[in-house]
Amino acid sequence: MVQGVLVCISFIIAIAAFATIIARVIKQPPIIAYLISGVLAGPLVFNIIGGNSYELIQIFAHIGVAFLLFIVGLNLDLRVLKEIGIVSAFAGISEIIVTGGIGILIAIGLGFSSITALYIGAALAFSSTVVVVKILSDKKEIDTLHGRIALGILIVEDFVAAIALMIIPLFDQGGNIFSVFVWLFLALGLILLIFLFAHFILNRFLNYLARSQETLFLFGIAWALILATIFDRLGFSLEIGALIAGMSLASSKYTLELGGKIKPLRDFFVVLFFVFFGSQLAGSLNLGLIKNALILSFFIILGKPLIVMTILRLFGYKKRTNFLAGISIAQISEFSLILILLGFTLRHLSQEIMSLAVLIAIITIGVSSYSIYYSHSIFNKLSKFLDIFEGKIKEKEQTKIKESYDIILFGYHRIGYKILNMLKEMKISFAVVDYNPKVILSLGKQGINCIYGDASDKEFLDEVELGKAKIIISTVPDEYSNLVIKERLKELKSEAVFIATAEQPRSAMDLYKQGVDYVIVPHHLGGDYAAHMIKEFYIDKKKYREAGKKHIKELNLAKKNSYFNIE
Q1: Which residues, other chains included, contact 324 with Cβ-Cβ below 8 Å and sequence gap of 6+?
Q2: N or C: which end of the chain has fewer CB within 10 A?
């Protein structure tokens, strides 16, 4: 038996490894590769998951879910709620209500029962934090306005999903609404005790455990699995227990170290979770199942972005920000799969719904991965049709565009605020261009000339007096935006110095080929500065400490006056 299970897992890992390589080549997230590996390993193709191996892999899948949610919990610091702002909170809750409601109506219209429709609607409402964060990180867009809004919405969704995972098992206990509220009250009391214990006792104990890396690693695993088991025994899901375990340690200074050490173990078990879920695509793929999957996937891919864009439009954001944030969350979540698996375990859902969820996940995650990667190109092609989502900025938030300046700075965030300080000292006329309305409002209050607009919008650049500027500085790392500015300068036959920014050497070389005078590559400049400092200070610890103190003052000033304080 042991040998058979070992052979089964070996085949699964081999299939997953091969599928992941292909997914990487075609720019798909690993989740897609894992799900397809499960389909291949399942009864539809090779049928290698069965008997004792099925039960063991199912156990591994639950362990994978526990580790996945423990890591998610480590990143869900309650203090984050203060930073994501009203926009993300309102947009996240509204998106869940609207998407879930429409999803329920569509499911009922397709002939599903009310209970099944509730599960389907809830599953459709959540988007994948894993997929979105991975792709936006690859594109260096996590810290952009649309990236931060999307991340804020995802955080809100994760909290709501966690609450749903806690409440659903209570209704399976056969009690009335009153008993459900009693159990929920007890659960909240237990969670409060765990957080108090973690804050006043556990965080201090971690200082001792951290002396040994192995001990800290084992403690993290034990803490996650023990709380998962306790919540499971009390009638809640083990998923919520693992999530609470992570959240209770989220404010600890050892969070990153814990997460970093457990991630490799999590990745192994998570592979088996998604493979197991993919293997649930069992039975014949009849036309009815495929039709339902396509209809619901179409709603997610098209409807969810439109819902988010409409909500963000109410806050006055421009159509570009609304589109990029909306298109980022056009897929279902790993929480959606966990929710469906929970419903299947509680016998609320049939095997057919498991298969339906797998198909929807493969379709929506696959399509949205490409749409996020190429979101800027898609927006440029659809821009003229999206005017209905163009937000209105109050007149006091922007200056007259037709004014001319010696220097125009595109982008305040990242390195822009450092350049701004230098421009103030030079005492020459300059203006800052940014497409974050909060940035414009803040700069306006400081008496700084500022223009609200998008550097990649050709029509906007036509309105800006670029031709009279002596220096154009772009701290926007998006290559397309810099090429648009360069093209506009070429049309104006401008002799202005153009300084652009690129995250990667390849992009920098492309910009140089297009005639950009100088390209800032932040990590290269940082390396040059560090090398110069080491050469000058060598082993003089006092000089390093003095430089460090000066750096701390600069960081505090940046945090106080820059984007971080106004987002």
Answers
A1: 144, 146, 150, 375, 376, 379
A2: N
161 in a structural domain: yes
**CB-count exposure of residue 377 (10 Å: 0-12, 13-18, 19+):** exposed
Q: Are 319 and 386 in contact (CB under 8 A)?
A: yes
Same domain, 190 and 298: yes
Classify 316 in phi/psi space as left (phi over 0), alpha (psi -120 to 50) or beta.
left
Distance (Å, whole) CA 5 – CA 19: 21
Domain of residue 353, residue span = 2-384
Q: What per-residue confidence (pLDDT) applies to 126? A: 92
Q: CB under 8 Å to 258, separation ≥6 — which residues? A: 74, 216, 217, 220, 249, 252
In tens, the pLDDT along 409-429 reads 888 776 777 788 788 888 788
Q: Domain boundary at 333, 354, 384, which?
A: 384
The whole-model pTM stands at: 0.64
What is the rounded CA–CA span in Å between residue 483 and residue 467?
16
Same domain, 9 and 52: yes
Which residues of the chain fall short of a pLDDT of 50? 394-400, 562-567
Q: How far apart are CA 432 and CA 405, in angstroms?
A: 10
Q: DSSP for 369-425, please give it.
A: HHHHHTHHHHHHHHGGG-GGG-----GGGS--TT---SEEEE--TTTHHHHHHHHHH
- End of a domain among 384, 411, 433? 384
The edge-to-edge listing of strands for the beta sheet with 430-434 is 450-452, 430-434, 407-410, 471-474, 497-501, 518-520
Residues 427 and 375 in one domain: no
Pairing of strands 450-452, 407-410: unpaired
Per-residue confidence (pLDDT) for residue 283, from 0 to 100: 60
| pLDDT tens digits along 276-291 | 777 767 666 788 889 9
User: How does pLDDT run across 71-85, given as a tens digit for each residue?
Assistant: 877 866 555 555 556
Residue 231 belongs to some domain of the structure: yes
